[in-house]
Design goal:
CATH superfamily: P-loop containing nucleotide triphosphate hydrolases
CATH topology: Rossmann fold
Largest sheet: 5 strands, parallel
Number of domains: 1
Strand content: 5-15%
């Protein structure tokens, strides 16, 4: 089945209703063996592009993963990006902010982890947490020490969306390409994965009772995601809503998006200047002797 990544891209300037976006689509692979073959081919594409990214040293790529618990963010990063040279890729995870991080604006801690030119940076959660979990649990704002918190809740999120858009536009102007993924998991599939974490001893470590508490706020999270995606998706920093009930299918979709994003940069290896070419020929003659 041929894949069109545009099918998963959130429309710019329109409302997002996640209930209308599928959490499962027709498989892009015919069998487990076919899936492994396709994924290996995608990883090879990504590896070749990452080498070009590093060699050309003109762009950075920031990949953001957001999702509900058990949607497969860790597995996605492990499987899709396993073939990339670790020297050219960095993964950053954002959980509860530290006391020092709370002393700065909400974008500060992620700015410390932005990828340099020639590298791919992967954010497992991101600054978007401050318009997602903080929106669902506004009591968290009390610890952020805002000097003049807006009294109207919606105004605060509007201002944060504005800050995020300005930040991402600034990064794009300065050479960082941003691509954002929301792994769209159904509530029923999350229930099954939680049960697997309880029933299978080797998965017990993944289970947290806090995840069950957050599950109670499912509708609130969906609303927060709808608002955040609609307000911050753009041609320069697109959101992709990836059906995540089928992990293998989701990995093929994400790998295709990443490969096309990198190939769209139209990178090439640096050209050798005439002076450098003469120097290399001289050194080669020395080595040959």
């Amino acid at each position: 089945m041929k894949m069109d990544i545009g099918d998963f891209r959130a429309p710019e300037g329109k409302k997002v209703h996640l209930s209308k976006w599928p959490t499962r689509v027709r498989r892009f692979y015919g069998s487990k063996k076919d899936y492994e073959k396709q994924l290996a081919a995608q990883i090879a594409r990504l590896d070749a592009q990452q080498q070009l990214l590093y060699a050309s040293d003109q762009h950075a790529v920031l990949v953001i993963f957001q999702a509900m618990d058990a949607a497969g963010k860790d597995g996605m990063i492990r499987h899709v990006l396993s073939g990339i040279n670790p020297q050219g890729c960095q993964v950053s995870s954002f959980k509860h902010p530290s006391a020092a991080e709370l002393q700065h604006d909400f974008l500060w801690r992620s700015n410390q982890e932005l990828p340099e030119r020639g590298r791919i940076g992967i954010f497992n959660r991101s600054y978007y947490e401050d318009v997602l979990i903080v929106r669902v649990h506004p009591e968290i704002l009390q610890g952020e020490g805002l000097a003049d918190p807006p009294r109207e809740g919606e105004k605060l999120w509007h201002l944060r969306f504005h800050s995020i858009n300005a930040q991402e536009a600034h990064l794009r102007r300065n050479g960082t390409r941003i691509v954002k993924f929301f792994l769209h998991l159904s509530k029923e599939e999350q229930r099954k994965r939680f049960l697997a974490r309880i029933d299978e001893p080797e998965k017990n470590w993944k289970f947290s009772t806090g995840d069950i508490e957050e599950r109670k706020f499912w509708k609130d999270y969906m609303h927060a995601y709808e608002q955040a995606i609609a307000a911050t998706t753009s041609r320069e920093a697109p959101w992709y809503i990836v059906p995540a009930d089928d992990k293998e299918n989701a990995r093929l979709i994400v790998s295709q998006v990443l490969a096309e994003t990198l190939e769209g940069l139209k990178m090439s290896y640096p050209q050798t200047s005439p002076e450098r070419a003469r120097e290399l020929r001289r050194i080669r003659r020395q080595l040959s002797r």
